[in-house]
Write a structure and sequence with these properties.
With 121 residues, the chain is of the alpha+beta class. It is built from three helices and six strands. The chain has a six-stranded mixed β-sheet. A hairpin with a 2-residue loop joins β3 and β4. The relative contact order is 0.21. It comes from Streptomyces variegatus.
Length: 121
């Protein structure tokens, strides 16, 4: 449980952020100096895409949420200063994406995230 000095990460806010129509709520969960590593078919583990800070992460989220697709938080586990969640997405044409995230928390905010994603081809 968080305290006033160390607020808890809120699973329901994460759900509203992931499943929302804009990235605003989701972006609010990141620390100003957060780091996001993305691993997928084009940015493989030895050379992941790394975004630094809320500004870079926000630009990526703006791009994702501008697409005609739906997002659903499937599972979320929070334990102490770490969390993990699964997200499924579907484009309007039926193409599906699945992502898994491991996150490190600091002060109730996402400080580090590693996201692994795969999609229909």
């Amino acid at each position: 449980m968080g305290t006033a000095a160390d607020p808890a990460f809120d699973r329901e806010i994460l759900r509203r952020g992931v499943e929302g129509q804009t990235p605003d709520i989701l972006l609010s969960l990141y620390a100003d100096d957060a780091e996001l590593r993305i691993v997928d078919r084009t940015t493989q583990p030895s050379h992941p895409k790394v975004l630094h800070g809320r500004d870079e992460i926000g630009r990526m989220l703006e791009d994702v949420y501008s697409r005609d697709m739906s997002h659903k938080l499937e599972r979320c586990v929070i334990q102490g200063d770490e969390a993990a969640y699964s997200e499924s997405c579907e484009y309007a044409d039926g193409v599906r994406v699945l992502s898994e995230s491991m996150i490190a928390l600091r002060g109730g905010k996402i400080a580090e995230q590693t996201l692994v994603q795969a999609w229909d081809e």
